[in-house]
Amino acid sequence: MRMRDVALSRTRFGYQRIHVLLRREGWKVNLKRVRRLYKLEGLQVRMRVRRNKRKSLHRGPAPRPTALGERWSMDFVHDQLAGGRAFRVLTAVDNWSCDSVVLETGFRLTSQRVVQALIGVSCLRSLSRSITVDHGTEFTSRALDEWVWNNGVQLDFTRPGKPTDNDLCESFNGSFRDECLNMHWFLSLDDAREKIEAWRIDYNEYRPHQSLADKTPKEFAQEHQQAGFL
Fold first, then answer.
1. Vertex 23, ends 14 and 35: CA angle to 5°?
2. Whole-number Å distance between alpha carbons of 189 and 195
């Protein structure tokens, strides 16, 4: 009965700790007997079930989107200023139209900065229903998880060590580096932001894309939206 009382008052204690407490109280009982009675009374510690409110899933390769805003992909790209100081760029691209959604530039892009960037995007366009990301700490953070939960967005994590699960974003990052980052000297962070944003507009509105039959993302989206109304 004393063992049961201890188990009920200390619900996360197993039989070994209960045995220690009993011995401290003067009970001359060995560990094997405590273990046998512990199991007989059904006092085993149950695995703690944590409430999981995450909208994020580890689903591996996601199906190809069929409409604008159905799926985005996000990642980070690193570069440095002319003076040598490193900076980062948060890239987000629409997987259907190849539209560059945002290029957020900063020295430190924390999870809060990622959330702020998405809030800024939401003021200009509808949010995607799902966003593919890797397992970086900025994307697995509580701040981002809470924000996507409150806004009805789902995070789809790529499989560890499988960058091909986010191949469109990887391809976009390659073009971004080849056509913008490698082509400019950035004198300051403001200079980098100005040149990077100019490249993003050119990428969306003027640059032809082979995957879109040499159309721009803007033209591709407009044509299909018009076709949907006919």
1. 35
2. 10
